Amino acid sequence: MQISDALALSTTLLEVSDSPKKDLELILCHILEKPPSYLMAWPEKALSSDQLERFQACLSRRTKGEPVAYILGYRGFWTLDLEVTPDTLIPRPDTEVLVEVALERFDQSPRRVADLGTGTGAIALALASERPSWDIWGCDRIPAAVALAKRNQARYQLRNVSFVEGDWLSPLDGQFDLIVSNPPYIDPQDCHLQQGDVRYEPLSALVADEHGLADIKLIAIQALDFLKPEGCLMFEHGYNQGEAVRQLLAMLGYHQIETHQDYGGNDRITLGCKQGA
Question: Binding of S-adenosyl-L-methionine: at which residues (predicted)?
Fold first, then answer.
């Protein structure tokens, strides 16, 4: 089988993927250990018997709906390639907006930052890679997630971030300039839970009661005791939750509340600041 033949099999993924050609390109680059440009330059290159066997195994898994990130064992986020496992959510491009907003709001000055529900460590590690002067703490209640985040940290030798086990802010002490989180925010009755990659991701990292707002509310309440005066709390949330999150933060006394859109133009990141002393 040639590379061009392998890519032509993208039609077999139309029912399970929004980007079948991209999926096969990622799988082939992984198996061939080549960049995407190689696929374009050498479409007539034939796969070896071992490569073909591995490709067919990966294709079979993807045809059944398993996410490419779990098949390959990694996913790109920001400037990093992060190990992923079924213990955590798969990092998504829209979450990079949270990183962008945090970096725009806070300069290189030393800051203390917490990332709650860190999962792979994606947000914490992206911030650590851009702001070496920041002291960053990532928390997750799942031991396997904490171990995964530590492996990703070790790969990039980012020494300004620490990962600890615990529920939201419970394992932390002291006060923070910035608290960020991509918490569960999907309503348990949402039909999208039966579609696409989320079928394979841990449900506990996806759903929250109170129409998806329960964990956001809990974090917002807890954060008032952990933020410095004028410190900032920043969430990722659902595309239709911006107004509800703004109202929640206002009710709790946060100010300078604002919502930022994701790459598709949907409300995705909302932040608020603790009132000054």
Answer: 117-121, 140, 168, 182
Length of the chain in terms of residues written: 277
* Annotated binding-site residue? 140: yes
With beta carbons less than 8 A apart as the criterion, state whether 130 and 103 touch: yes
Q: How far, CA to CA in Å, does 153 sit from each of 76, 83, 90, 118?
A: 14, 10, 16, 12
Ordered by start, the domain boundaries in the chain are 3-65, 78-273
- Spell out the CATH class of 3-65: mainly alpha
Check whether 120 is labelled as a binding-site residue.
yes
117 appears as a binding residue in the annotation: yes
118 known member of a binding site: yes
Q: 119 among the known binding-site residues? A: yes
Residue 78 is predicted with a pLDDT of 95
* Residue ranges of the chain with per-residue pLDDT less than 50: none
Has 202 been labeled as part of a binding site? Answer: no
Predicted confidence at residue 216, as pLDDT, reads: 96
> Was 86 annotated as part of a binding site?
no
Q: How far apart are CA 126 and CA 81, in angstroms?
A: 11
- Is 184 labeled as ligand-binding? yes
* pTM, 2 dp: 0.92
Residue 242 marked ligand-binding: no
pLDDT, residue 208, reads 86
CATH entry 3.40.50.150 includes domain 78-273: yes
